[in-house]
């Protein structure tokens, strides 16, 4: 099984590397032979080769560098997503896949336009909050933290329903985007670390041919942490 | 006349504040209300030294104040508040009735995000920037945001004293005239390969092309150069050429400022009372700042040898038959944790030990903290044969357990004990060798109140 950690070096702002580490850790524990490849600028990337692709959050400047580089691969990425390859983009990295990013200084960047939504960045107004989020994909709600300086408008295919915490824009009831198996969310935590049930579902998704039975998270500490956090955040 | 009244009022309020326990920024705040330009109207001393950065500000300012006082200089510095109002309080209190400051040197610790506002009122003659690290991300967003704030605080005419090892800080020197660099050539952590979990300077802070590294100290610090622009690690004017935590000393080379370059006269050997990488950088910053305003290196070295830090970041205790040391670290702050982990490692090389990590803090702002920083901290380094046991405690012990599950540290070594009191009982009988506790300001007393502090 091959996993791609995209721009591992400069899109890794909020412990994002934890997502990749925990996923590989549990896949290995379940007997899966995992090959992790880390790629960055100036390296040839063949998107079709991977069973799972991950990209984390970056500073506003670094996000634009990633966007610029990914434009070289737009068609391949589109096909990869439409083929159903599991793809997780956390933090502001998922903004890259939308139509436009309006920067705080007034510049407008064309996104990859794989999805139809716009991002508006603010410079001084950051949102840093906890939250609880629900999705049909997972029987248990997700917990985590959001640290962003942007709002997103006009998402059609929402990933989460907001139970507690910030959404795509002030007072929005939705957070993130889902398109085939592309999951985009501002949720950090890291999300796969703090949500063992979601991680389990994700592992099943990656194992698309059902080669591995019993892809279960047996880490009682991860589950305890999750339960504690969920209880603390419930209103 | 208005100046006189403002000064008198400020002095009076500060005097009253002593009885009512009012904060040190209040008198300054009122003074600035009466006359927003008051700090421009008083006569500042010849030397105004400012220190900012993510980590090490307070300790560095204390060390500088000690060196200057020890050299007979009349120095005034802010001990508590580092925002504009706090600076106004102590600057105005130091004035005579004509509005002349009495001290020869004004020494300031300035908040890295607010320095740009404080410096609107006056400019330091010498401005030291210690480092820019990941620190309180929910509040600060990210390092690049703070980087921009610090950049806005830099004004022409200042002498910048910059950390050459930190690409963010070093880049402030591009196209700037008066710069002095400090840095380290070789630290106990220095490696040719990248061993940390993140590097905020993976891309050049100036032009956003990849930085190339010959060596890494940790995270993005080291010997680097940009593929595209002129940013590189500059040869430092004050260099730690050798840091030895086994025999507790550091060699500092100042050949760039010596009259006899390359001679051994420019090398100074200093004892390191406690093996902390942060301390090495504090010493370098202090040497640079005080030497630049005319204190000879010999005198500086002599003063540093006599220095005992006031703000106790290290607390010794006894627990049963064990001697212990608590290292106060800032949660949510990569640099602080790295330093503590490296200190434990240096001490563990000398004798076997037990390491305790307590994360229990409940933030005032959040009912659940952001713990993504666990995945920045280099816990992997605690995999050392002399570290016999690791105890994880406090409210976030489960999250720590998950974090440790992806290190190569054997689970047999790790105990997870949620309640701090239970953790202490466990240590009484179960600890091996000396005990090192890593925790933060707000959690330290939960541990220290139950052991014998020595």
Please provide a brief summary of the model.
With 235 residues, chain A is α/β, with parallel strands linked by helices. Chain A has helices at residues 17-29, 60-70, 74-82, 191-194, 196-206, 220-233, and strands spanning 2-6, 35-39, 52-55, 87-90, 100-102, 108-110, 118-121, 127-134, 142-148, 150-153, 158-164, 174-179, 182-185, 187-188.
The first-level CATH class name of chain A: Alpha Beta
CATH architecture descriptor text of the largest domain in chain B: 3-Layer(aba) Sandwich
Alpha carbon gap, first and last residue of chain B: 54 Å
What is the assembly state of the chains in this entry? Answer: heterodimer
What is the percentage of strand-forming residues of chain B?
A: 15-25%
Question: Structural class of the secondary elements of chain B?
Answer: alpha/beta
Q: Number of helical segments of chain A?
A: 6
Q: Strand arrangement, largest sheet of chain B?
A: 2-3-1-4-5-6-9-10-11
Any low-confidence stretches of chain A, pLDDT <50, length ≥5? none
Question: How many domains comprise the coordinates of chain A?
Answer: 1
Beta-strand content estimate of chain A: 25-35%
Number of domains of chain B: 2
The CATH superfamily of the largest domain in chain B is Mur-like, catalytic domain
In total, the number of strands of chain A is 14
**Which stretches of chain B are poorly predicted, pLDDT < 50 over at least 5 residues?**
none
The largest contact between protein chains, plus residue counts on each side, is: A-B, 42 and 35 residues
Total DSSP helices of chain B: 15
Termini gap of chain A: 41 Å
Average pLDDT rating of chain B: 92
